[in-house]
Each structure stands twice: as C-alpha cells, then as structure tokens.
C-alpha cells in the first residue's frame, strides 16, 4: 500500500510513520507548511507546524529511510482555518480551529492531493481506531482514553475514513510511544506535546483577536437586561468565562457571575449565575456522519462538547436538515460555534456545529 505519512515533527507522527514502514508499506513523509512567517519557532510546548517541527520531521524521515517533502498549505490554512476562526468570533461564536484544520486541511486538502498522486492512504499520529465489521468503516475511540483524539476527528466522513490510517490507535499509552521512539533513535522521543492554538503560540487569544477585529467598548448586562459593567470588545469573551469580567455592580446574592451569551450585533455581553449555564438542548444545521448515517431519525447516544469533557447521555434527533441533542442531565456552558460529537459506545456516529442553545434555567428563576 502506498502511504503518505503526515509528519508534524512530533513523536506521535514519527512513530506512526515508522510503524507503517515496518508493516511493509511504501511510505512517503510530508510536512505541511501552514505559515509563511519564516522566523516562527516553537516556544516550549506551545504551537506547532514551525521551522523547528519541519526540521524534526525531516530528521525522522531520514532515519526511517523514506522520501520527505514539505507542502505549502499556508494559503488554504489561512482561508479555511484562521479566517474562519476570526469570523466565528466576530459572529459571537466559540470556534474550534483544530476541528476545522482536521476537516479542511489534514483530511480534505491533504487527502485530495494524496489521492491525486496515487496514494492509498494518509497516515497520521492521531489516537483513534478504525473498525470494519462488515457494515462499513467505523471510527472508534483509542485504547488510551487519556490520549483519545476521536473528538477532533469527528468531522471525518465515510469517504475520508476509507483513506485514513491510524497506527497508534491501539497503543495502550503515550509512554509506550515515547519509549518506542527512544528505542528507534528518533530525536523527538522526549519532545513536549504541542497545545493551545497553533497560530497563536503565545496563548494570548484576546490580544491576537483585538489586533485583527478591533476593540469597541460595550455594555455588560445581566439576564434582566440591566447594565452591570462595560467591556472593551465582545470578541474577548466566551460562554462560561468567569475571570476578567470587571463588573461594576455586584450580584444581589454576592455570588460570582459567568458569561452566558455574547451578542456581537449589539456588542453586549450577558452574564449571570453559574446555574444559568446549564443547557437543556443544543442543535445545528452543519453536521456530518463518520461512516454510515443513523438508521433512525431519533436515537440514543452520548454527546461530547469539548475535546476533554465527559460524554453526556442524550436523545438525538435528525430531521429537516437539523441535528438536535437533548441531554439526560443538562450540559454545562455550551456556546454556539462549539462542536458536539455523538457517540454510540466507543464509536463516533457524527458531529454538528452548535448553532442554537436552550437554557435549562428560565430568566426569572
């Protein structure tokens, strides 16, 4: 099998490529250049896809004896991930750029080019498993629950799954992967994992957005519409946020307040008690199925709304172009723009981008 190994420069993708070589596949390594900022370098464990990462990926490929290339996907990344991130915040939503990158770059743009060049599969270092029991290919959680990445892969379609290859999915722990890398002589064996948003390596999302969308003073309201403070830009707030509110009017019960809603049109932020974050229903029109679509328009499932949150049992409905999830126990602080991934046991059923939320607590409660 001809395999294109997507090599980020980290330990996971390097070991995944090595395992593909061991299995006898014809492997070619490729690193995606997602930024044209030539001086970009990794800061500790922040960021990814830097010059340093490209060099690490090349060294790993040389050690494995496989061809290596760097593909410039910076324009596509800018248009499909960075610009989407900015526009979502401007619309008062909370986007997940890792989901968009997997959807638009790693398993769309990269996969399209791989197929055009005659490759049979794209290999990555993601922790997830593929299962085929005769009913079509299914995406499942990884063996290592702590490293499971099936949530961020929930955007993959049945067609894309047919061309994916996850050699690390059945590995019991990340420690085993690092030990294997060490034994193979890979210099990235002890390289720290990247985290945060890769194109904001210093972690200052508020400052980064402020430079690009501007900051305009607005009002902070309570649930009754009364002004309780002011802000310097609604884009800097997300649902569930507690810190940095700087409210001038204390709550009547003395308890802390949280961001409940961001309204970009009026440039206002709505705050309230923590219990008001309870969400009784979420829905969205942008959805996809990871493999075969559900047989019924109403089905039981578990819903995960963040990469590392606990899945919540729920009833999902799929009709009139909208997917709706009603949890048995309310979700905690869901914001429009977040991704809800639906599971049947360990299997990823599909996902949708949250467009609408319904609070479990009435305004006057």
TrEMBL record:
Enzyme class, spelled out: transferase
A GO term for molecular function: tRNA-uridine 2-sulfurtransferase activity
Disulfide bridges in this chain: 101-198
Location, primary (coarse class): cytoplasm
InterPro entries: MnmA-like, MnmA-like_C, MnmA-like_central, MnmA-like_central_sf, Rossmann-like_a/b/a_fold
Segments for region (Interaction with tRNA): 147-149
Stretches assigned to the tRNA-specific 2-thiouridylase MnmA-like central domain: 208-272
Protein keywords: ATP-binding, Cytoplasm, Disulfide bond, Nucleotide-binding, RNA-binding, Transferase, tRNA processing, tRNA-binding
Functional summary from the UniProt entry: Catalyzes the 2-thiolation of uridine at the wobble position (U34) of tRNA, leading to the formation of s(2)U34.
NCBIfam families: PRK00143.1, trmU
Protein name from the UniProt record: tRNA-specific 2-thiouridylase MnmA
Gene this protein is translated from: mnmA
């Amino acid at each position: 099998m001809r395999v294109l190994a997507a090599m980020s420069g980290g330990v996971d993708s390097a070991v995944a490529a090595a395992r593909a070589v061991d299995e006898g596949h014809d492997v070619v390594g490729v690193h995606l250049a997602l930024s044209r900022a030539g001086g970009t370098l990794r800061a500790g464990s922040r960021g990814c896809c830097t010059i340093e990462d490209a060099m690490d990926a090349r060294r790993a490929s040389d050690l494995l004896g496989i061809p290596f290339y760097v593909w410039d996907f910076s324009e596509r990344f800018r248009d499909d991930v960075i610009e989407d991130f900015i526009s979502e915040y401007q619309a008062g939503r909370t986007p997940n750029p890792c989901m968009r990158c997997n959807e638009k770059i790693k398993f769309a743009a990269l996969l399209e080019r791989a197929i055009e060049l005659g490759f049979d599969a794209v290999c990555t270092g993601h922790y997830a498993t593929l299962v085929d029991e005769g009913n079509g290919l299914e995406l499942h959680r990884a063996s290592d629950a702590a490293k499971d990445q099936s949530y961020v892969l929930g955007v993959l379609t049945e067609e894309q799954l047919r061309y994916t290859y996850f050699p690390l999915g059945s590995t019991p722990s990340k420690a085993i992967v690092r030990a294997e890398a060490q034994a193979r002589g890979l210099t990235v064996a002890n390289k720290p994992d990247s985290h945060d948003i890769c194109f904001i390596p210093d972690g200052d999302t508020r400052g980064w957005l402020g430079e690009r969308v501007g900051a305009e003073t607005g009002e902070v309201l309570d649930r009754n519409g009364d002004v309780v403070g002011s802000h310097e830009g609604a884009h800097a707030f997300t649902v569930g946020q507690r810190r940095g509110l700087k409210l001038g009017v204390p709550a009547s019960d003395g308890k802390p307040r949280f961001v409940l809603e961001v309204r970009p049109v009026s440039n206002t932020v709505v705050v309230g008690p923590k219990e008001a974050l309870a969400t009784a229903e979420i829905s969205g029109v942008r959805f996809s199925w990871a493999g075969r679509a559900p047989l019924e328009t109403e089905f039981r499932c578990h819903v995960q709304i963040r990469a590392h949150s606990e899945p919540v049992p729920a009833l999902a409905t799929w009709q009139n172009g909208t997917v709706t999830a009603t949890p048995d126990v309310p979700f905690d602080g869901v914001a429009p723009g977040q991704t809800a991934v639906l599971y049947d046991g360990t299997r990823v059923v599909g996902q949708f981008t949250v467009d609408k939320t319904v609070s479990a607590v009435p305004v006057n409660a």
